[in-house]
């Protein structure tokens, strides 16, 4: 007992020495300079910053200097869902919207309005809430937020959209907005607006544009990223002014007659829509293009309709191929060649009652002829129906001396797929391996693709057998993704010996 008591006294002595008066004082937030305290709390989400401010009286007002005010509501799917109890009924939705509006108003009333970096509102808002929306836009403008994001969702009809006054962000010609995202609103650019000289990113999605849009872009001399998605009101997207700092341009779902831009620094161009004249002036630095044309000749149009994309190193194509699509010969003259193209991704949806009778996929063989220095090809195919296995004759294609890797997903041994694969195997002199995957993946196609993959058990044996035979025929490695260990990476024919090795 005496030994235990002595040990306890010794332990208390050591603790007392450890926490003695000579120890430095503990850190306290209020000891920091006033201007530094909000910086410490800013990385927290707004809700957590408010909760943290309750810890101490001296912290109580710290959240009012938070730099990012982001208010996110449920998605339109949540609002319409019958399975989500919180948003199942219309009255419940109105109640939650009222709470959302009350929260936003309370925050902006108490916030200092100083040092705002981002102001974001994302929830479907009816035009009847215009007073609140105008108040929030006014706060974002008066606080000079660098990033402004107003996404009112696609919950309501276009004629009910709230008008977003761009002139409210002008601030008498003084620039402060660096990034502007608008969705499901209407707006009317005019020549009076001049305060967008430091704007770096502009995204317009489902926006009704009523005014002089090219004139607005002329004021955005520092613009680097421009995305225009499903907007309307612009008949011709012709911008005569030079946007010398523009690096990324996305145009999708637009009902325009022509696209014309002057962008000497453009590195990535994306277009999704119908075939229209597209002119990109001075785009010598263009490295990547993403093209999706509507119509049965979409694949060929991607290689011929936009001469400005010839310098690209990476090309991403999306196309629909309908029944009896006609093969098209592409120009093979020097000025029509993709001489710098190294990597290509191609997504094809084949809409045909009989994929074995459809030759649209073989258009790709002609397309490869204009890319003589291609190194990697990723081809993803979705045929809307199933069919029996078939074999076909090898289609013609020029020799490729740089193509090393080819990956084909959705490969079900349809006739056109086999012909294209054999085409590549025969003419790609340095090909290291052909990878085929019968499965259609969610990573490639939007939505649930599981319904297309229910018959993999029946398809895999035939695909593996084809890979085995074809590997011997051409002396190339053919890997079947998703096969069992004894058939995966089916074959490698020995050069000159003709024997087959299995890789596990």
Give the arrangement of secondary structure elements:
Blueprint: H1 2-18, H2 37-41, H3 46-52, E1 68-72, H4 76-80, H5 90-110, E2 118-122, H6 130-142, E3 147-151, E4 162-163, E5 179-183, E6 185-187, E7 201-205, E8 208-209, H7 213-218, E9 225-229, E10 237-242, E11 248-252, E12 259-262, E13 268-273, E14 278-281, E15 288-293, H8 298-304, E16 314-322, E17 343-351, H9 363-368, E18 376-383, E19 405-409, H10 415-427, E20 433-437, H11 456-474, E21 477-480, E22 492-493, E23 500-501
Parallel strand pairs: 1-2, 2-3, 3-5, 4-6, 5-7, 6-8, 7-9, 9-11, 10-12, 11-13, 12-14, 13-15, 15-16, 16-17, 17-18, 18-19, 19-20, 20-21
Antiparallel strand pairs: 22-23
Domain F-box: 26-62
InterPro entries: At1g61320/At1g61330-like (IPR053772), F-box-like_dom_sf (IPR036047), F-box_dom (IPR001810), LRR_At1g61320_AtMIF1 (IPR055357), LRR_dom_sf (IPR032675)
Protein name: F-box domain-containing protein
Main-sheet strand order equals 1-2-3-5-7-9-11-13-15-16-17-18-19-20-21
Helix content: 10-25%
How much strand? 15-25%
| Terminal CA distance | 69 Å
What characteristic shape results from the CA principal axes? elongated
Structural class, please?
A: alpha/beta
Number of strands: 23
Q: Largest sheet, if any?
A: 15 strands, parallel
Region (Disordered): 1-27
InterPro entries: At1g61320/At1g61330-like, F-box-like_dom_sf, F-box_dom, LRR_At1g61320_AtMIF1, LRR_dom_sf
Protein name: F-box domain-containing protein
Domain F-box: 26-62
């Amino acid at each position: 007992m005496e030994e235990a008591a002595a040990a306890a006294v010794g332990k208390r002595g050591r603790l007392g020495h450890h926490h003695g008066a000579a120890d430095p004082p503990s850190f306290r937030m209020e000891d920091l300079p006033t201007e530094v305290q909000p910086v410490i709390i800013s990385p927290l989400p707004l809700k957590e910053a408010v909760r943290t401010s309750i810890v101490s009286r001296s912290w109580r007002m710290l959240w009012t200097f938070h730099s990012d005010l982001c208010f996110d509501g449920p998605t339109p799917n949540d609002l319409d869902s019958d399975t989500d109890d919180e948003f199942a009924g219309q009255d419940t939705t109105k109640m939650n919207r009222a709470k959302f509006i009350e929260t936003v108003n309370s925050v902006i009333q108490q916030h200092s309005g100083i040092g705002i970096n981002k102001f974001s509102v994302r929830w479907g808002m009816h035009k009847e809430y215009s007073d609140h929306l105008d108040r929030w836009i006014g706060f974002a403008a008066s606080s000079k937020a660098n990033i402004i994001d107003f996404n009112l969702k696609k919950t309501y009809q276009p004629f009910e959209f709230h008008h977003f006054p761009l002139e409210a962000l002008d601030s008498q010609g003084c620039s402060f907005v660096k990034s502007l995202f608008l969705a499901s609103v209407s707006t009317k650019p005019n020549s009076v607006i001049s305060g967008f000289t430091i704007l770096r990113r502009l995204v317009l999605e489902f926006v009704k544009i009523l005014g002089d849009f090219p004139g607005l872009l002329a004021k955005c001399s520092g613009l680097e990223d421009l995305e225009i998605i499903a907007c309307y009101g612009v008949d011709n997207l012709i911008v005569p002014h030079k946007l010398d700092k523009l690096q990324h341009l996305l145009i999708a779902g637009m009902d325009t007659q022509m696209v014309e831009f002057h962008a000497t620094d453009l590195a990535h161009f994306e277009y999704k829509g119908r075939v229209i004249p597209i002119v990109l002036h001075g785009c010598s630095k263009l490295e990547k293009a993403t093209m999706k044309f509507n119509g049965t000749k979409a694949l060929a149009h991607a290689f011929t309709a936009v001469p400005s994309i010839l310098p690209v190193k990476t090309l991403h194509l999306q196309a629909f191929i309908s029944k009896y699509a006609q093969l098209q010969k592409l120009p093979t003259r020097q000025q029509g060649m993709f001489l710098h193209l190294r990597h290509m991704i191609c997504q094809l949806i084949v809409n045909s009652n009989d994929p074995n009778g459809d030759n649209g996929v073989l258009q790709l063989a002609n397309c490869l002829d204009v890319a003589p220095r291609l190194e990697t090809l990723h081809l993803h195919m979705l045929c809307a129906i199933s069919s029996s296995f078939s074999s076909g004759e090898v289609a013609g294609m020029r020799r490729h001396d740089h193509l090393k890797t080819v990956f084909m997903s959705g490969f079900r041994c349809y006739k056109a797929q086999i012909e294209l694969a054999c085409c590549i195997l025969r003419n790609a002199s340095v090909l290291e391996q052909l990878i085929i995957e019968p499965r259609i993946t969610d990573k490639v196609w939007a939505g649930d693709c599981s319904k297309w993959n229910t018959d993999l058990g029946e398809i895999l044996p035939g695909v593996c057998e084809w890979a085995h035979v074809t590997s011997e025929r051409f002396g190339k490695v053919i890997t079947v993704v998703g096969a069992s260990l004894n058939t995966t990476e089916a074959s490698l024919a020995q050069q000159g010996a003709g024997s087959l090795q299995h890789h596990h």
